[in-house]
Write a structure and sequence with these properties.
It is a single chain. The chain is an alpha/beta fold. It folds into two domains: 169 residues, Rossmann fold (3-Layer(aba) Sandwich), CATH 3.40.50; 213 residues, Dihydrodipicolinate Reductase, domain 2. 35% of the residues lie in helices and 28% in strands. The chain is built from 14 helices and 18 strands. Strands 3-2-1-4-5-6-17 form a seven-stranded parallel sheet, with helices on both faces. Strands 10-11-12-7-15-16-18 form a seven-stranded mixed sheet, with helices on one face. The C terminus is likely disordered.
């Protein structure tokens, strides 16, 4: 099957997704579209250079222009949005009008609910609209469904995920592999989790715990952040006792960045400083981003999913773990690989007719086994084990 793809956004994730589609996605053509035509052209040139063939073409489009988007999307089999989450509602309307399947990287559940409200329109148009398809929300949620499938009676799902520099440098011991605004969004607002089967709100940086990963990562900490669980707590309310996601960082991160939040540096509201109006968040981002970018591209992504419950042998725990590293051959970071590639896989599955029609929650739309098959083609190596409860930390990475 030959597939025609559209990628909206020629940033780091968009370029990585275009590469994945062109290399693994049975693509006839991939159109990389951005408001900045020069960025789209540079991205297309990079991917075609890596592949040694001209598969990706560049196009200019305003993601806020529904009519222009519908024209661009018309005739494509599947599209992937890598643009900011607030644009995805309008893009979903355009995809339905064009009768083109759409998935996105998402990240803000308030917009996901608006997209899911288009269920009837999407089904009538014969297309799949699937939000939140990156790393987490995204691949981690699909792996959680796969882990639940190993249990006769799943009860508790916990996910740990993080992108880290391979060679952390003090004082931050952290590197930035996506826009700094996304980091602040992740660390602000409340997270919705399941506790005792009920929806529960928790603040960011709550419930800090120590967690061990295989070398070269080693000892880390994990804590509550927003958005990663996406719609899963609502989907599994009353069916699971626990569903939660925690972000993984090197030790001390939660205390440091929690202090920045407590100081008010995340605030978008102006304050007066010596007679000048200053937006704390703008100042914070301006000072912080170059410091975190200085960590370089060589990163590692850690992802661990645990599902506890009962199987035919009694109490059991299914654990899935992934460690992925910066790719020296292509120059793609682990964060690009683990965010863009899973979304590109979803686009491929949609185009191949392996997802239901309508606007569907990721955990109900993406079949885990075909997804895993495709992920392994991309070089992702998953360590999977079903074991006695409480030994998740013993699983070796692959």
């Amino acid at each position: 099957m030959i597939i025609r793809y559209i990628v909206l956004g020629a940033g780091r994730q968009g370029v990585a997704a275009a590469y994945d589609m062109a290399r693994y996605g049975e693509a006839e053509t991939v159109v990389l579209a951005d408001l900045d035509l020069a960025a789209a052209q540079a991205g297309a040139q990079k991917v075609n250079g890596l592949l040694g063939k001209a598969v990706v073409t560049a196009s200019q489009v305003d993601a806020a222009d529904a009519a222009g988007l519908a024209i661009l999307l018309g005739g494509a089999d599947a599209a992937l949005s890598t643009v900011p989450p607030y644009l995805n509602v309008g893009i979903s309307h355009a995809a339905i009008a064009a009768r083109t399947h759409l998935c996105d990287l998402g990240g803000e559940v308030q917009y996901v609910w608006q997209q899911l409200a288009l269920e009837n329109e999407a089904r009538d148009a014969g297309v799949s609209i699937i939000p939140d398809c990156g790393l987490l929300p995204g691949m981690g949620n699909t792996l959680a469904v796969h882990a639940m499938d190993q249990m006769d009676q799943p009860r508790e799902v916990r996910i740990w995920v993080g992108g880290l520099p391979q060679n952390p440098q003090p004082p931050f011991n952290y590197g930035l592999y996506f826009p700094v605004e996304g980091l602040t969004m992740e660390y602000d607002g409340a997270a919705t989790v399941l506790r005792d089967g009920r929806l529960t709100k928790l603040p960011p940086f709550a419930e800090v715990e120590a967690v061990e990963f295989p070398e070269p990562v080693g000892r880390c900490e994990a804590f509550i952040t927003t958005a990663g669980a996406s719609t899963c707590p609502w989907t599994y309310e009353g069916r699971l006792e626990v569903f939660q996601e925690k972000t993984v960082r090197y030790p001390g991160h939660a205390a440091m960045f929690g202090a920045y939040r407590a100081l008010g540096l995340f605030s978008p509201e102006p304050v007066e400083v010596k007679g000048q109006s200053v937006v704390p968040q703008d100042l914070y981002h301006t000072l912080l981003e170059p410091k975190l970018r200085a960590a370089g591209n060589r990163d590692v992504v850690v992802l661990r999913v645990s599902c506890r419950g009962k199987d035919r042998d009694g109490e059991s725990e299914a654990v899935i773990e992934l460690l992925d590293f910066y790719d020296e051959e292509t120059g793609f970071t682990a964060m690009e690989r683990t965010t863009a590639f899973p979304a590109a896989i979803v686009a491929q599955l949609m185009a191949q007719g392996e997802t239901p029609r309508g606007a569907i929650r990721l955990e109900l739309a993406v079949p885990p086994l075909p997804f895993l098959t495709q992920a392994k083609r991309r070089g992702f190596r998953f360590a999977e084990e079903v074991q006695a409860p409480g030994t998740a930390q013993e699983v070796a990475g692959a």
